[in-house]
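Table S2 (continued). Query chain:
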Amino acid sequence: MVKTKKKLSPALPSRQDVLAFINAQSGKVGTREIARAFGLKNTARAELKRVLRDLADEGKIERRRNKLHRPGILPIMTLADIVSRDRDGELIAVPAEWDEEEHGAAPKIRIASPRRLRPGEAAGIGDRVLVRTEPSGEADDDAAYRGRVVKILDRAKHRTLGIFRSLPGGGGRLVPVDKKALGRELAIPPGATLDAADGELVSADVAKQGRYGLTVARVKERLGSLKNERAVSLIAIHAHGIPHVFGREALAEAQAARPADLAGREDWRSLPLVTIDPVDAKDHDDAVHAEPDRNSANRGGHIVTVAIADVSHYVMPGSALDREALERGNSVYFPDRVVPMLPERISNDLCSLKVQEDRAALAVRMVIGADGRKRDHSFHRVLMRSAAKLHYAQVQDAIDGRTDETTAPLLRPVLSPLYEAYRAVKRVRDARGPLDLDLPERKILLRPDGTLDRVVTPQRLDAHRLIEEFMILANVAAAETLERANVPLIYRVHDEPARERVEALREFLQTLDISFPKGGVLRPEHFNTILARVKGRDAENLVNEVVLRAQAQAEYASENYGHFGLALRRYAHFTSPIRRYADLVVHRALVRALKLGHGGLPAGMDIATLGEIAARISAAERRAMAAERETVDRLIAHYMADQIGATFEGRIGGVTRAGLFVKLDETGADGFIPARNIGDDYFQYHEAEHAMIGRSTGETYRLGDRVTVRLVEAVPVAGALRFELISTGRKEAPRMAGRARRLPGRGKRGARDERMLPRKRHG
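Corresponding output:
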């Protein structure tokens, strides 16, 4: 019996018409926009969704950030590398990420020359840039796109960073700090050292690249001594170009700032708001309060208040402080120091909610029903006084019956109502079903001299979850308010996993005899079902890791496509404006939308401009994450440098064609085992199983397997460790190697990155 295709609605456009429409759009394109363009309603829209799914399955369109694109079409904001100049001297760039096997040669982007530039601002060949693109529209143009540089993210690598090692006869050697450049020392001739001392961190320009011998370089800047581990974060700061010295103008503005008074504010100083932070927190920018709702219409409900330091009162749009904050994008946290987004006069003083001191705040008061759902909310510009400075374990102890002199008088009037409100909103959270990954965080503890003392895994308490959930509620309220007021904002967004990543996850789970649903709308609960199934099993850590790798990375955007990991339709960062520029933008937008006084979002700040800002701060966030991770690697490598030959227990944290990456239990240190050193067999990489498998013996090393290793090399300056295997792998039947594909998700070491998880400081 021959099956016949179901006829489409007469009102439905042809597949060719749909493709032509998607290709012609430069802005957001989704089902709603297509349906509106062709006048489709009701059942015709359902048919359209089916057509779009078919086109996606056939590879004729792809979905990025809940927008539809023709494959091979660049998004409006593109990360690109400048590679050449054309005959007219104009710069030519190509996208930094492009699948030539699938889409063919990368399209060229002709970079428009800006009208006005200050010295040093122009992009050049070799630079990596953020470009705003549009189709050239000219058939005879060999560049398919025109582009305008929004931000230079990385300058051409004409300069290198390393440790200077002096030689007796003068001159010296430069030992690169980049892991990829290990073993490639540069020669520094006499007279080109800038009087650098042995062991000093320097930047140098490559002067001559000969065919034989060492490459010659000349020291251009001395960056500081690295004789103790306290200075190790200097490497990451300079390697990633993180701004860490405030300009005179910004510092002058900060020093001139004065505490806010009641002018234009509500007086909330009698409300017993409390700060709850880590025990070693230096600043306190959020405070909370809860009480039963006395309104008879909301019997059993709660009033939850979240107050956030009013940074917009002190940092005016376009000021020197504002420009520096945007350049930094966020504060960067190293084990030995913090590189703040704002000077300490602002972040640690005027905008730190100190106990019994008047502080300016932007607060949201939320009405929570007895069922835990938010019924209403309102924002207020206030003057407040913190009633107490508390830390998480202290609060949890009080709730568990172990009060101290600070928490005892606060238990009944302040702390107990907070927990009662939390228990109510937690029921809604659990019903919403956000992604529930269980990947413990490690924390580096240093000795007074800056050397590593130990690595700990702080316990997760209900006190942590309480603050996280109230911050999420406040962030959602901010996004809802600004959408209703039709004021542009920067969203915190997290796309659903890409189809190829989900397929790779499905193949992997099949090797564990675990099925994953195919087709239909993907939701976090689908992943949670898998995570719950492996809870307490040997594969629990492994599955959590692989599920995380399948996720997209959270970012900032001026257009909303929701937050998949939190299972929220709209979400904006509001709760940490002293350390994240996105939150400062949201504060300014609220001030403008609600007419709360000075410091609001400028009238000319439209969605396009905010889109550029979102792209810049997303790049700054990724830069900070990489710098923080590398610094931890270097600290641990310093710590382990005198333990060569020692054996350690750990788990395989990454599997690639090149070899295995092992994460140690005690310190969380990551080290590498080259494939050639795994064992006596010839090991082949099987991507679907995240495993290296011996061709003759079937001996198998899989992601998450427990192993015993010996440390054979440590390179502290690069944060690199090399291990050799002591234990043997599991025995399986010999097999042929599977087809090689790139692992989805994170980098090869499997180091944790911030994909979607809501944490008080970095969520």
